[in-house]
């Protein structure tokens, strides 16, 4: 197979026939496992919107979550009632590792009752910070993802933290 090429600001990148075959094989596998293409689209959107230092920002978000959990070792959990913030952080961190989160998995991640989680998801959706979508293979399951707006706001917020946090 002939080589395919595309120019990237003066540098030449070559996509060989073997690369094209491997790409075709991988895309076919992805489409078989995600027939709706929803997960592939989500991954592409997230990849496009990721700043160069996204992993550093995700690490900061993980540190924020760890610190929030640590404070409950000293004081009663009920005084730290920010489930909306906890949901956004959980989705932001989960997005970096790939899998879309279900409503019940987010409820478990933030350690809040399902009713509280759903009430906050309603609010976050109205604010256009998250979207809910039916699972492509199980219509009983709702999947959650951040909107571009939420991702950009969290990126900007986390970028203001000193790198030591």
Number of structural domains? 2
CATH level-4 homologous superfamily of the largest domain: Winged helix-like DNA-binding domain superfamily/Winged helix DNA-binding domain
The N- to C-terminal Cα distance equals: 50 Å
**Relative helix content:** 55-70%
CATH topology term of the largest domain? Arc Repressor Mutant, subunit A
Largest beta-sheet characterization? 3 strands, antiparallel
Strand order of the largest sheet: 3-5-4
Number of strands: 5
Which CATH class of the largest domain applies here? Mainly Alpha
**What is the tally of helical segments?**
7
Gyration radius, to the nearest Å?
Answer: 19 Å
Overall pLDDT level? 81
Strand pairing plus helix content: what structural class? alpha+beta
Overall, the morphology is: globular
**Which assembly state applies to the chains in this document?**
single chain
Report the order of strands and helices.
Answer: EEHHHHEHHEEH
Low-confidence spans: 1-11
At CATH level 2, the architecture of the largest domain is Orthogonal Bundle
- As a percent range, the share of strand residues is 5-15%
